[in-house]
Amino acid sequence: MTGAGLLAGLRTGLRVRAGRGGALGGLWTGAGLAALLGAMILGISAGAASLAPVEIIRELLSHLPFLDVESALTDRQRAVLEQLRMPRVALGALVGGLLSGAGAAYQGVFRNPLADPYLLGAASGAGLGATLVIVYAGGSDLGGLPLVPVAAFAGALLGVMAAYLLGRTAGGGGTAALLLAGVAVSSFLTAAQTLVQQAEIDELQRVYSWMLGGLGRGGWSDLWLVAPYAAVSLAVLLGSSFLLDLLALGDEKAVSLGVRPTVVRVVVISAASLATASAVAVSGLIGFVGIVVPHIVRRLVGPDYRRILPVSLLFGGAFLVLVDVAARTLVAPAELPLGVVTAFIGAPFFVLVLRATRSRVR
């Protein structure tokens, strides 16, 4: 049988499997949508200026044509809703979805449940880019364009590109070589960032404030800044779900089916890295989201990436919105760094995943 015939047969088999699990996948997709919607309503309503969910819904409906609905909010409440709460919650949903989707893709490419979106140097590259702008440009804007998100975005992409080129040239491009290259590049970029911080120690507080992650600095402009890149990266990741299922069969089987594993890995890693860079650019460094959510989703929906990726996007967005609510209400009127809260949740979970993975190896 030819590779094309095998691929057609496998597609048929996967359609049958998807059909059997379609009800389950649809159920969890609906649950993810409900969770995301509920989390966003809670995120918009929670805070010092209390906004009732009914008032929020009436305000949103009042902007729709052909509906005779009057808003019950005052001008001050409307300003809080439209300029503070809504962009923050929208950013949280977007960043959570991007990190979760990127984490699921990385885990599929490397066939490792411990892989996360920062694996290939995106975090260290973003940290160096943001640090350089904060220290030497004061974090200022250029023609109305905020420089810190742009520098973080560029640094994240450059870090991943450096890791990929190093793994490709020095190690042949295998997954193990890419992982080692990511460690090397991350260490180098982190060292460079530390050197810059030590040279300008007065700016340490601003640098660490950005690195610990948060959504309070963002606005609608940040959302529009990364929205095109987020849309492209998510479209590629969702479109590559079938290919990730083929990679799970092993490289030899994938090759026999007419798939080029190296090309698939490059495309998926590039899209996942773009998603990670987009998230980091507007939120700083928020860890563990890309490990915790995809791992839980995989336990819920099974190994099919056509279900894992979309459900991870939805639950990832809901998860980060809820974590942000906790970060800004637990010690109100102060606010906890978002990365600290996700670390408190993710670190114990990481240990559990590590123990489960070790048990399966034995």
Structure report:
Helix content is 77%, strand content 1%. The chain has a single domain, classed as Orthogonal Bundle (ABC transporter involved in vitamin B12 uptake, BtuC). It is globular, with a radius of gyration of 21 Å. The protein contains 15 helices and 2 strands. The protein has 362 residues and is an all-alpha fold.
- Whole-number radius of gyration? 21 Å
Q: Quickly count the helices.
A: 15
Number of domains: 1
Strand-pairing-aware structural class: mainly alpha
- Low-pLDDT stretches: 1-10
Q: List the helices and strands in order.
A: HHHHHEEHHHHHHHHHH
**Cα-to-Cα separation, first versus last residue:** 37 Å
Largest sheet: 2 strands, antiparallel
As laid out across the biggest beta sheet, the strand order is 1-2
Give the DSSP E fraction (strand runs of 2 or more residues).
under 5%
CATH class category name: Mainly Alpha
The CATH architecture: Orthogonal Bundle
Write the layout of secondary structure elements.
Layout: H1 3-20, H2 22-45, H3 53-62, H4 75-110, H5 122-136, E1 141-142, E2 145-146, H6 147-171, H7 175-199, H8 204-211, H9 220-239, H10 241-247, H11 251-256, H12 261-283, H13 289-301, H14 305-329, H15 338-361
Antiparallel strand pairs: 1-2
Helix pairs in contact: 1-2, 2-4, 2-14, 4-9, 4-12, 4-13, 4-14, 5-6, 5-7, 5-8, 6-7, 6-12, 9-12, 10-14, 13-14, 13-15
Provide tags for this entry:
single chain, 362 residues, mainly alpha, ABC transporter involved in vitamin B12 uptake, BtuC, two-stranded antiparallel sheet, 15 helices, 2 strands, globular, transport, cell membrane, transmembrane, ABC_BtuC-like, membrane
